[in-house]
Amino acid sequence: MSEDFEWQAENDFTDLIERFEEQIKSGNGHFFDVEEFEGIIDYYLDNQQKELARAAIEWAREQHPASHSFYIREARLLAQESHFKEALARLESLEAIEQGNEELFFAKGEIYSMMDRHAEAIESYKKILETTDRPEEVLSNIAYEYESANDYPHALIYLKKALEMQPESEEMIQEISFFFELTTRYDEAVEFFGDFLDRHPYSKFAWFNLGLFYSNLDLYEKAIQAYEFVIAIDDTFSSAYFNMANAYTSLKHYKKAIKLYEETFVLEKPEAITHYYIGECYENLDDNQQALIHFNQALDIDDKLADAWAGVARVFVRQNLEKTAVKYYEKAIELAPNIDEYKYDLAVIYLKNQDFDKSAKLLDTVVKHDTHYVEAWMNYSLIFALKGEFDEAINLLERATEENMKEASLWYRKAGYLYRAGKIEAAFFDIEKAVKLDFEKHRELLDYIPELLDEPRFVEILDLYKEPNN
Questions:
Q1: Percentage of the residues of the chain whose pLDDT score is greater than 90
Q2: Using one digit for the tens of pLDDT, what is the confidence trace for 425-467?
Q3: Which of 63, 102, 313, 357 has its CA at 20 to 30 Å from residue 426's CA atom?
Q4: Which residues does 339 contact at the CB level (< 8 Å), separation at least 6?
Q5: In 3D, which of 383, 376, 384, 414 has the Cα closest to residue 397?
Q6: SS3 breakdown of the chain: % helix, strand, coil, rounded to 5?
Q7: What is the distance between the alpha carbons of residues 291 and 304, in angstroms, rounded to a whole number?
Q8: pLDDT grade, residue 33 (50/70/90)?
Q9: CA-to-CA distance for 277 and 261, rounded, in angstroms?
Q10: What is the pLDDT of residues 138-152, one digit of tens each?
Q11: What is the separation of C-alpha 245 from the centre of its chain, rounded to a whole number of angstroms?
């Protein structure tokens, strides 16, 4: 019944707009009551149709000169035209005689917001907070102003208040979730949504966001439970299946994840990223054929998805088809030039095939972009070592250790190069430093220089620093 009424009201309003615009074209006068004019003007203001809004205001003021609501709408129009001072002056002149006019203070708040005068916008909204019959809208507006002023804690306070008045609002729940995410207050988010669900246990959006924050805290089992509640409330909530699949993937339960990803295909049009994630699951299950099928299906849907090009490349590498893989990595890099992983993987292929120049060029780009990419530093230095250019390799790792002082692998590798270059004292200095950082990783050095086990000094260092249980 209500849906029929809303449909009828919408059609009546469309007729009203058409009737007004027909009168504008014909030039014939026609009477509209105050509410009709307000609806017409608001429609044009909301749609930024300024000329029609001005025409409607002039006509409305002519027919209803005693109504102040059209002066308020004129102020809003002036603000849209960036005549802010004139707009505020119009409202100030009305404020003395319209002290309790909610619409006036809404307009003032809106104009101050457009001027980035957020404190004054908040003050305007607060003046009607206690008397308005739409407090949740006022609270949301106040929250928006705090957000615009980068005062996220206060924005969150007012959104929480608004949500308590309209607990079914998906938009408000998403906004609150956004602020928690933005400020990385994950524990507080879990507490908030947990308390909210104690009072509103059937809020699927709250359960969904609780799952998101459990995942952010790496509490994947709890995230899965939250998503299961979402599906119990609404078994067509596709995003809950998708996110639950992500959680199972993080737990390395790849077969369960695949089933959930595939469930989303029943509920909505298949997406490229979902096929990509399924491909990743099969890749982790060592099923290259199925992985390749899904990576290619992802590309059929979206051939701009760089991850899928890289996924195909990885499968070809596993199948020892590295020349073919190169083309796919190059395409992935073309589509996503800032993702270092693709460049690194391609550099490793070149390194294995002794194409040192191409490998070095890629790795140099990677370490300049991400100075903490330890594996890139290691392989970059290895290129020089394989060419017997140990001084270059050592100098490179000097730079690497300056950026990554606590990365034992870099110190062990530099020690290995120093040892190979005959700089024994310097090598043992770095070995001792590395052992202090991470004793277990000394095996990486032995993989590179196994003869160190015949060095009494090396054995003494291991004996000195090894843990009792080692």
A1: 73
A2: 999 999 999 999 999 999 999 999 999 999 999 999 999 988 7
A3: 357
A4: 306, 332, 333
A5: 414
A6: 80, 0, 20
A7: 18
A8: confident
A9: 8
A10: 999 999 999 999 998
A11: 18
Distance between CA atoms of residues 311 and 329, nearest Å: 9
Q: Which two tokens stand for residue 236?
A: 């067509």
Would the pTM of this model clear 0.90, i.e. be above it?
no
Distance, CA of 253 to CA of 247 (rounded, Å): 9
Rounded CA separation 296/312 (Å)? 7
| All residues at 6 or more sequence positions from 384 whose CB lies less than 8 Å from its CB, including other chains | 390, 392, 393, 396
Q: Under a CB-based contact definition with an 8 Å cutoff, are residues 279 and 252 in contact?
A: no
The runs of H, that is alpha helices, within 166-305 are 170-182, 186-199, 204-216, 220-233, 238-250, 254-267, 272-284, 288-301
317, 349 Cβ separation under 8 angstroms: yes
Residue 206, CA distances (Å) to 29, 203, 271, 288, 468 in order? 53, 5, 25, 38, 49
User: Which tokens in the block code for residue 415?
Assistant: 């020690």
Q: Do 101 and 124 form a contact (C-beta atoms < 8 A)? A: no
Q: What's the rounded Cα separation, in Å, for the pair 305 and 103?
A: 48
Nearest-angstrom CA–CA distance, 246 and 238? 13
Cβ neighbours of residue 14 closer than 8 Å, sequence gap 6 or more: none
Here the contacts of 118-124 (C-beta below 8 Å, separation 24 or greater) are: 118/145, 118/146, 118/148, 118/149, 119/149, 121/145, 122/146
List all residues 6 or more positions away from 152 whose beta carbon is below 8 Å from its beta carbon.
Answer: 146, 179, 182, 183
- List, for residues 339-377, the tens digit of each pLDDT value: 999 999 999 999 999 999 999 999 999 999 999 999 999
Alpha-carbon radius of gyration of the chain:
33
**Backbone dihedral region for residue 443 (phi beyond 0: left; psi -120 to 50: alpha; all else: beta):** alpha
| Closest-CA residue to 124 (of 175, 87, 156, 179) | 87
Name 260's Cβ contacts closer than 8 Å, sequence gap at least 6. Answer: 241, 242, 244, 245, 248
For residue 8, the one-letter residue type is Q
How long, in residues, is the chain? Answer: 470
